């Protein structure tokens, strides 16, 4: 069976080749892979092309362009913030470079790290972000182009990843002290615009969408979801979910809707209409659900369905247009990583190295369950017919043995 992937037209620049995975949740920003012949099953001794030990600890997901894989990590309990580059074909560590030194990196949540935002690769530039500890532009050759620091109290450590629109690098900075989204000149690191708001802390990544020919940066923030004009920071619309905070899932979009989670303590997933302006708190909801709404895992849209995963392993499949539930099943385990869709399958990775592979559709069908040792809070990535999985100690290239 062929599964149709329907996405709202994304306003994404031509970052890299189509088969690359250059940022958090891949080229579509929504976890959709165009790779074929991806592995269905694997283990420590099955379908592993290579395994590379990684220094330090970081929960950034792999970003891939050409033969380079970029990640971030932190050594010495966050005092040394580093960028890593691994060769995609051999697994050899090419670059291990210190980007920032921090005298007092502060505390982090037990499920976080000092290096959790995912790098973004564009051409010969790599953008890395460590929350309030600093943001930097590197070259793929391993040189630092510029560095800057955005002051805000992220409390539990860094979370959201950057996104690029034309010449602007866009980052959500929702701290306990101040909340804003900032646009930096990607060539220099200088601030181009800053849009402030009132709310609370959040750790989400912006999503770029095209709505009736106008590009929007959809930001899921503490207490608010907001749409901005990405070149200028002009606010286009806002929607309030009172008392929502620590929002982690990246928004998803399709069918003229964007899907955002209100965060802790009791999340609600809202399907918001993207054809409105101003404060649309009273008028913008197409549908909403509380049962099965995610706190940490980003939604995944495949065909006409949207797939959700709770922190404690309950997966839900809904009609993305109406919110009607097709199924809800307990997969098991705890979840932080966001799922991906590739080669006709959905891959859910839990926090202890287990990946459950299911078939998309209105009935729940498990195709495989695969386990690797270690903690796994980073999301999967795909490229070159392979899946790349990061644990707390290593990076794996997983592929069918016949394609090695």
Any overview of this molecule?
The protein is mainly β. It has a single domain (48-403), classed as YVTN repeat-like/Quinoprotein amine dehydrogenase (Methylamine Dehydrogenase, Chain H, 7 Propeller). It is 0% helix and 42% strand. The protein contains no helices and 33 strands. The protein has strands at 48-53, 63-65, 68-75, 80-87, 93-101, 120-122, 125-129, 135-139, 144-148, 163-165, 168-174, 179-185, 191-197, 207-211, 214-220, 224-228, 235-240, 252-254, 257-261, 269-273, 278-279, 285-289, 300-302, 305-309, 314-319, 325-330, 340-342, 345-349, 354-358, 366-371, 381-383, 386-390, 394-398. The strands form 8 sheets. A 5-stranded mixed beta sheet has the order 14-15-16-17-21, with no helix packed on it. A 4-stranded antiparallel beta sheet has the order 1-33-32-31, with no helix packed on it. The model is unreliable at 1-16 (pLDDT under 50).
Question: In angstroms, what is the radius of gyration?
Answer: 19 Å
Beta strand %:
35-45%
Spell out the CATH superfamily: YVTN repeat-like/Quinoprotein amine dehydrogenase
How many beta-strand segments? Answer: 33
Number of domains: 1
Poorly predicted runs of 5 or more residues: 1-16
- Largest sheet: spatial strand order: 14-15-16-17-21
Search tags:
five-stranded mixed beta sheet; disordered N terminus; single chain; mainly beta; 404 residues; 0% helix; globular; Methylamine Dehydrogenase, Chain H; four-stranded antiparallel beta sheet
